[in-house]
Amino acid sequence: MFAFLAGLICFFALGGGPGVRGQDTQGPRFVCTSIPLDADPSCPLPPMPMQSTSSQEEDLKNTVMQLRETILQQKETIVNQQDTIKELTGKLSRCESASQSSPQDGRYNGQGSWRKDYSKNTMGDLPRDPGETIDHLGKTMQSLKDRLESLEQQHMRANVSGAAFPNELRDLLQRRLGDLENQLLSKVAELEDEKTQLYNETAAHRHRTETVLNSLLERITELEKGNSGFKSPEDFKVSLPLRTNYLYGRIKKTLPEMYAFTVCMWLKSSASPGIGTPFSYGVPGQANEIVLIEWGNHPIELLVNDKVAELPLSVSDGRWHHICITWTTRDGLWEAYQDGEKLGSGENLAPWHPIKPGGVIILGQEQDTVGGRFDATQAFVGELSQFNMWDRVLRPVDIMNMANCSSYMPGNIIPWVDNNVEVFGGATKWALEMCEDRLFDS
Question: Which residues contact 146 (CB under 8 A, 6 or more apart)?
């Protein structure tokens, strides 16, 4: 390009180029020819064929047009670069403004300081979550680096075409990009700190929540256990106020193998239809080993080894009643007592079947599997107390003395004591002096 311009200068100096368009100037005409830099100027190359004035004029016009287009392209490149600088400057300003927090763009954390509210978008197009913000800043940084590489490539192309790329602009862009990178790294560090602080606050809140929940669970456990300040270990009752499949009591002790039994208890219920299941004893392979149940419109039934006997008892009047049931494997004989009086008896109830050991006694629910799978429609609703069990048939006089409160006999297999009864699901234990409460009830 410089050799070509040198040839043009020589042409104007020596050739006496065109004057007024369309006219030739009188005088000698010379043609200057460009030669290589390493050539000997004393040995000029053979002269080129002389061109006409019009042809030379057209060449000059084309050259001028090319130079003009080059200058326009350079100006356009500079304008684009200035727009890029403005865009980078605006982005940097938004980053700088986002790095400053105030009460207007944060929330008071309750500890004397303001904390940035992640629900507010402080950087225009940044995500709300700190992790997403960090990723977004990284992508923005990569985009800026790609733009710088693109500008450098434009610089190389401009140098190839003979245009001069402003080094000052490139240096300015590099400095601004370095500043922006530092700002972004600072912002990332700040967001990481806030993320750690948020995690610590979340952990502290979780700890406070767990503490409150533990306190509530302890309170619920106390309510389930009821009042443990009983005058004596047997002076308490179990309350089952709702017909559900999760309120129940459980006897901690189990039964040995037995060939006879007597079970007695105090009941109070006004539920209808049927009071439900005051107690059930289930063993592996037989959930209905011993069950006392009244459900639907059926009478009270005694089940032994899933065999059924109907009992002539009626206890759904909302008053306390003393119930005793005896059974022996010999001929399957059974007897039913209410308030000390024998109201019925029968035989052939699971004759010669020994009661299996190692099962679970549940108060208030009928078991479909050992210790579980309760049915709400068969749940006992009411209160019960002094559930005792013997491995023999008691005498009628003993049953009468317990019913009229003239004596108390704890069961030799299952005695009614506080530490032998646990309650679940909202069932409670409360203090109760059975005979005094029964006299007041009557």
Answer: none
Q: How far apart (Å, rounded) are the C-alpha atoms in residues 129 and 121? A: 9
How many whole angstroms separate alpha carbon 280 and alpha carbon 111?
57
Place of tokens 């004989």: 333
pLDDT in tens, 136-184: 767 777 777 777 777 767 666 655 554 444 577 777 777 878 888 888 8
Neighbouring C-beta atoms of residue 13, cutoff 10 Å: 11
Pairing of strands 428-431, 260-268: unpaired
How far is CA 44 from its chain centroid? 90
User: CA-CA distance, 436 to 442, in Å (whole number)?
Assistant: 10
Question: What sign does the CA torsion over 70, 75, 76, 81 have?
Answer: positive
> In sequence order, what are the beta bridge partners of 290?
281, 304
- Which tokens belong to 355? 């009661």
- Report whether pLDDT(238) > 90: yes
How far apart are alpha carbons 131 and 145 in whole angstroms? 22
Q: By the 8 A CB rule, do 191 and 123 touch? A: no
Q: How far apart are the first and last CA of the chain?
A: 126
Q: How many CA atoms lie within 13 A of 367 on its CB side?
A: 28
List the one residue out of 353, 391, 362 whose CA is nearest residue 255.
391
pLDDT average, residue stretch 310-323:
93
User: Helix 130-160 vs helix 167-225: angle between axes, to the nearest 10 degrees?
Assistant: 170
